[in-house]
Design brief:
single chain, alpha/beta, FAD/NAD(P)-binding domain, Enolase-like, domain 1, five-stranded antiparallel β-sheet, 21 strands
Length: 348
């Protein structure tokens, strides 16, 4: 292992320099990840760096701030905003979009919003931070509606950008897409050059990076494996957890699919939530193609949905007929039993 900044210095074969050391290899795997996006907020760059956090600072903190402003209502903003709130900080979350997790099903987003309201998180949707300034030991942030918010720290959670620039790849005929390394279906950017993880800009999740790593390893060994991003689970590790896979109902309709959807209140129909906690909550939603008789999407809000969303993920990826899913025998008592109830509600 060499620690330092790497730069590509040649190809055919590939050469990579790290400090005074140059390495030569037939294959190079680029896995440089991504960095937090700094939104174009006036005054942000002039703040004390100790007052401006990304996920790195938030997950390595040694003391909880009294208050925090979270910019962004995606997965990172939701997870870290709720964490800081549960640890005792006064949290204000500013989301430019119309709701938290704006790309997911509106019903799922509403359930999450209700939980945040109950927790006391001040969620401001449809707005954004336009300026920040020092305010004694803290930060004064001004929103585009004129409101001002004083906090100890500002947490940037407004997205991430791939980190392929700065490696010298363009000098050797490798074109970037912005700061991302574009790869083909084999995760290959050029002969002998491979991309894995956030640097590719494809479904920027750790589990996708691990999958791409397996694909690249097989292809270096000559097995000709193609990456398939069908039905990648999307999980937010909030409390309760949020999970989704495939298409939302709106996305399915926009594709011309004859959609049928169902939603189930999990504690109302199952025993498992009551063996898990004394005040259970949970909802499962399914989206199906009526003509083909298969699932095309699913979402869930509740305990351990990061685990049981994979039933839907596998069904969508492999196009298991709904009639086959209805004939399955889930263990009692488990959360997975909710699928039988929801599938029966579909009436497909």
């Amino acid at each position: 292992m060499l620690r330092g900044a790497a730069r590509v210095t040649g190809r055919d074969p590939w050469r990579v320099a790290v400090g005074e050391t140059e390495l030569i290899a037939d294959h190079v795997v680029v896995a440089t990840g991504s960095a937090a996006v700094r939104p174009p907020v006036e005054g942000l760059d002039g703040l004390d760096p100790a007052r401006v956090w990304t996920n790195r600072e938030a997950t390595t903190l040694t003391a909880i701030p009294d208050s925090a402003l979270v910019i962004g209502g995606g997965a990172v903003g939701v997870e870290l905003g709720q964490f800081l709130n549960r640890m005792g900080a006064d949290v204000t979350l500013v989301q430019r979009g119309p709701r938290l997790l704006a790309r997911e099903d509106p019903r799922l987003c509403a359930l999450l919003g209700r939980r945040f309201a109950a927790d006391g998180v001040d969620v401001r949707v449809g707005t954004q931070v336009v300026s920040t300034a020092h305010d004694g030991p803290g930060v004064l942030s001004t929103l585009d509606d004129g409101a001002r918010v004083r906090t100890d720290v500002v947490l940037l959670a407004s997205g991430r950008r791939p980190c392929a620039d700065g490696l010298g790849l363009q000098d050797w005929g490798v074109a970037l897409e912005g700061a991302a390394l574009p790869v083909d279906e084999w995760c290959r950017a050029a002969p002998g050059l491979w991309g894995v993880g956030d640097v590719t800009g494809r479904a920027m999740f750790t589990h996708v990076a691990k999958y791409q790593g397996r694909v690249v390893a097989d292809n270096i060994l000559g097995l000709g494996r193609i990456a398939d991003y069908t039905a990648v689970p999307r999980v937010v590790f909030s409390d309760p957890e949020v999970a989704a896979v495939g298409l939302t109902e709106r996305q399915a309709r926009d594709r011309g699919i004859d959609v049928v959807a169902a939603e189930v209140d999990v504690p109302a129909v199952l025993a498992r939530p009551w063996t898990y906690t004394t005040d259970p909550e949970g909802t499962l939603g399914l989206v199906a193609d009526r003509d083909l008789g298969v699932l095309v999407g699913a979402w869930a809000f509740g305990p351990l949905v990061s685990e049981w969303i994979h039933t839907a993920a596998l069904a969508i990826r492999t196009r298991v007929p709904i009639r086959v899913l209805l004939d399955s025998i889930p263990q009692f008592p488990t959360f997975n039993e909710a699928y039988l109830v929801a599938l029966e509600e579909l009436g497909v």
